[in-house]
Amino acid sequence: MAIPELKERWAGRINPVTIGATRAGGGTRGRTITVGGQMGIPYLDFDGQTPNPPVIALDVLDQAPADWPAPLAEVYRDVWSDPAAWAVRAKQLGADLINLRLVSTHPDEGDRSPAEAAATVRAVLEAVDLPLIIWGCDVPAKDQMVMPKVAEAAQGENCLLGAVTEGDYRTLAAAAQAYGHKLIALAPCDINKQKQVNILVSDTGFPLEDVVIYPTTAALGYGMEYVYSILERGRLAALAGDRLMAQPVILDVGYEAWRTKEARSGDEVAATWGKAAQRGPAWEAVTAADLLQGGADILVMRHPAAVEAVRKLTRDLVGESAMAAAG
Amino acid sequence: MSSYRVRFQPEGALATVEEGQRLLDAARSANVYVGAICGGDGTCGKCRLVVREGDVTGESTDFLTADEIRHGYVLACQVTPQSDVVVEVPPESRLSGYVGISEDSDRFSDFSGRVAEPVPEEPDPLIRKLYVTLREPTLEDPLADQERLLAAIERERAGPWQMGLKVVRELPRVVRRFEAKRTSWNWRWDGRVTATVGLRKDVGEILAVEAGDTSGRNFGLALDVGTTTVVAHLVDLNSAVTCEAAAKYNSQIKFGGDVISRINYARLTGGGEALHRAIIEDIDTLIDDLVRRAKVGRGEIHCVVAAGNTAMVHFLLGLEADLIRLAPFVPAAAAPPPLRAAEVGIRIHPRGLLYTLPAVGSYVGGDITAGVLACGMHRREELALLIDIGTNGEVVLGNRDFLVACSASAGPAFEGGAVSCGMRAGAGAIDHVRIGRDTLAVFSRTIDGRSPVGVCGTGLIDALAEMSLAGLVDRGGRFRTERSPDCFCRGAEDGRPGFRLVNSRRSGGGRDIVVTQCDVENLIRTKGAIYAAVDSLVESLGLSLTDIRKVYIAGGFGNRLDLESCVAIGLLPDLPVDRFRFIGNGSITGAKLAMLSHRLLEEAHLLRSRITYQELMADPAYMERFTSACFLPHTDLSRFPSVVERFNGRACAPVEADPMATSTSEVTT
Question: Cβ–Cβ of A166/B635 closer than 8 Å?
Answer without folding.
Answer: no
